[in-house]
Amino acid sequence: MEKIIYNFGTSFVNNYVYFHNDKMILIDTGYENDYDHFKKMMEKAGFTLLMIDYVFITHSHSDHVGFLKRLLEVNKKALIISSLEAKERMKTGQNQKAFYVGFLSSFLGKLNKSRISYPSIDDDKRFIPYTEQNKELLKDMLGGDIIETTGHTKDSLSLLLTDKKCL
Ligand SMILES: [Zn+2]
């Protein structure tokens, strides 16, 4: 059976939510100020932020981890799954230049600082990094295979769900 995958994002960013083994999994958070929108969308669907068990982070850009810090403050149990490199980068709260949008983002950055930085996350206890040893565990937890997709940034991961949806 196909999984139901919700998208509680905005027209700019996706915030996918799905269930696996009765755990609620969120893929990426939006920009810092997308928090209220996401919360509202969750509640409209009958969910709360407290229900989230795992947050899978594809990479540490402000449009993917923007309200992660705030979410972790509200939801004390949620664990973050990301690459080791993304975990370290999130301690800085600064976007790493993407390979192909480097010029564009530095241009946009001059226009709007919140687009290139975000509240930093520095709490190793909240992370399950994607490593060789954690591979099988994470596959079980997420119901899919994590694939390293270093095309966009060096810290990028993708998730291929067992029903063949690639997120
Ligand atoms: Zn990005």
Question: Can you give a write-up of this model?
Answer:
- The chain has 167 residues and is of the alpha/beta class.
- It contains six helices and eight strands, in the order βββαβααβααβαββ.
- The strands form two sheets. A six-stranded mixed β-sheet has the order 1-2-3-4-5-6. A two-stranded antiparallel ribbon has the order 7-8.
- The longest helix has 10 residues, at 35-44.
- The model has no long low-confidence stretch (mean pLDDT 89).
- It binds zinc ion (ZN).
- Residues 59, 61, 98, 152 line the site of zinc ion.
The CATH superfamily is known as: Ribonuclease Z/Hydroxyacylglutathione hydrolase-like
Q: Number of DSSP helices?
A: 6
CATH architectural type: 4-Layer Sandwich
**Parts with pLDDT < 50 across at least 5 consecutive residues:** none
* Outline type: globular
What is the count of β-strands?
Answer: 8
| Percent helix range | 25-40%
For the structure shown, list the relevant keywords.
alpha/beta, binds zinc ion, globular, 167 residues, 6 helices, six-stranded mixed sheet, Metallo-beta-lactamase, Chain A, 8 strands, two-stranded antiparallel sheet
